[in-house]
Write a structure and sequence with these properties.
Cytochrome Bc1 Complex, Chain A, domain 1; 2 domains; 12 strands
């Protein structure tokens, strides 16, 4: 039977600044250890943005003592064991996982990497080359959807330590040296800045040994952690269009500051509203229904009330990315541009702008309708019932369960998923509709659009002028649509947005 322990453990003469999170599972065949350091990319010094990622990756892709990275991999192979790391704005997490039968053999590798990383020049150079390539090339070329999200955070948090990508900027990565990495690790990866999590089939003796070694091996200095940056307040709807060569459609990401996190009980109410509007990768949401299912405009459309890491890959929200600075967002996956539509349909040869302006109007109009009318009692019950089941899928493995428990501590909670189920059970329709009115609006937003250079100027002009943006269907598609949809299209095409500024940025000038 699984036993859950959340406690602060102290060794004589040793104080860890954060809680120790235990998840004992006597019948498990694995042991998982997570080391969460309360320093993410916001701890990067000015001019050295990307240093935390470079530091963590140099540790993870290097050796320890006189044991090389390749030698570690050879040792791990027969154990079927592994380790990984993740970095976000406010935390850096090392995760170690091994079958209980190999725990003693694995232990020196785990502690060696954390307490005695070799910091070899060759390992650092390999990490730096990959990181430089990401900020110079990959982010702009691999996925416009991911690009739009990074561009929005750059705009939303401009001027704060939340602005830059965790991988850094093109110019800043160039300046990072191996000495920077060594000093950053010594300064910020300390035992006073650590939350330790452990799950699985381990003994108290093993945990005490780990705590003792961490006490001896990690620096005891107090890391001076920067205050997390807060999102800027937009003045009206401020748009940045990133123009790039051969963009595959217009990828849209929007957002505005949200003064709410999991630490508040009201978060559960907004979860229901958000799920109804556009739960990630779900086909029942209003945005998905209106934009994709009825009009076949793109692959999917979703909304978010907190950062959803790797949403382009993950079906379920991952643990390990807790943030104290939050924002609401809409993700409108790429819609077609005029150039594409003209190539496909003879009847659309005269259009100047593709579907982006119309899709934006449709999405914001749906939010306005929710604010004005709320959710119906029937939709409230259906959505709440779905969420109470769905959240049970969030943490299916010991590593995921431990991750969510550690995130809970970050937000000042004990067991977020367990508490969330209780909050949802006691939630009322009135509370959900009140939360919508309190936290959602469409008058002041930031919007980033990654689009083809051929689309940038016409789209910017259309947005600035609040020009009509009729939906451009092929004749075949339009002939199959009911009259109520076409009537709604006419209303959407004229729906006024509070656009106050539109700026076009060349893709080559982003993340410099």
């Amino acid at each position: 039977m699984k036993r859950l322990i959340l406690a602060c453990l102290f060794l004589a003469g040793s104080l860890f600044a954060q809680d120790i999170v235990e998840l004992k599972q006597p019948n498990a065949n694995k042991v998982v250890v997570k080391l969460m350091f309360r320093n993410g990319s916001i701890a990067d010094p000015a001019g050295k943005e990307g240093l935390t990622v470079a530091t963590v990756q140099t540790v993870m892709q290097g050796g320890y003592g006189d044991v090389s990275y390749s030698a570690i991999q050879e040792k791990l192979f027969p154990m079927a064991a592994g380790y990984s790391a993740s970095i976000d704005k406010e935390v850096s997490i090392f995760t170690f996982s091994v079958h209980v039968d190999f725990l003693e053999e694995y232990y020196p590798i785990m502690t060696g990497l954390i307490l005695n990383p070799s910091f070899e020049e060759g390992d650092f150079n390999r990490v730096k080359i990959n990181q430089q390539n990401y900020v110079d090339q990959v982010i702009r070329a691999s996925s416009d959807e991911v690009y739009s999200k990074r561009a929005l955070e750059d705009l939303l948090f401009r001027g704060t330590n939340y602005q830059h990508m965790k991988q850094g900027k093109s110019a800043s990565v160039e300046t990072i040296t191996l000495d920077d990495v060594k000093n950053h690790y010594k300064q910020y990866f300390t035992r006073t800045n650590l939350m330790l999590g452990i799950a699985g089939n381990y003994s108290d003796d093993f945990l005490n040994k780990l705590l003792t070694d961490l006490k001896k091996g990690l620096p005891n200095s107090d890391a001076i952690l920067p205050r997390p940056g807060k999102a800027n307040q937009p003045n009206g709807i401020e748009v940045e269009i990133v123009a790039k060569d051969n963009a595959f459609g217009s990828a849209i990401f929007t957002g505005f500051p949200l003064n709410l996190t999991r630490s508040s009980d009201e978060f559960a109410a907004l979860m229901v509203a958000n799920s109804y509007l556009g739960e990630h990768r779900k086909s029942y949401g209003k945005l998905y229904h209106k934009i994709r299912k009825i009009r076949s405009m793109n692959y999917g459309d979703y909304s978010y009330i907190e950062w959803y890491d790797n949403g382009h890959r993950f079906q379920l929200p991952p643990a390990g990315v807790p943030r104290s600075s939050n924002y609401f967002a809409l993700w409108i996956r790429p819609v077609q541009i005029a150039k594409q539509l003209k190539q496909q349909y003879e009847e659309l040869q005269n259009i100047e702008v593709g579907h982006a302006h119309f899709a934006l109007r449709l999405a914001l109009r749906e939010i306005d309708n929710l604010i004005a009318n709320g959710i119906s009692a029937e939709d409230f019950e259906a959505t709440r019932t779905f969420l109470r089941s769905y959240i049970k899928l969030y943490a299916q493995t010991p590593a995921q369960q431990l991750g969510y428990l550690m995130d809970s501590q970050f937000y000042g909670r004990s067991d977020y998923l367990k508490e969330l189920d209780g909050l949802l059970a006691n939630l009322t329709l009135e509370q959900v509709n009140a939360a919508i009115k309190k936290y959602w609006q469409t008058e002041n937003m930031y919007i980033t659009i990654i689009t083809d250079k051929s689309e940038a100027e016409p789209l910017a002009k259309s947005l600035k002028e609040n020009a009509a943006s009729p939906m451009s269907y092929s004749n075949l598609v339009k002939s199959g649509l009911p009259e109520d949809v076409l009537k709604e299209d006419d209303e959407i095409a004229e729906y006024k947005l509070n656009v106050t500024s539109v700026k076009i940025v060349d893709s080559a000038n982003t993340f410099q």
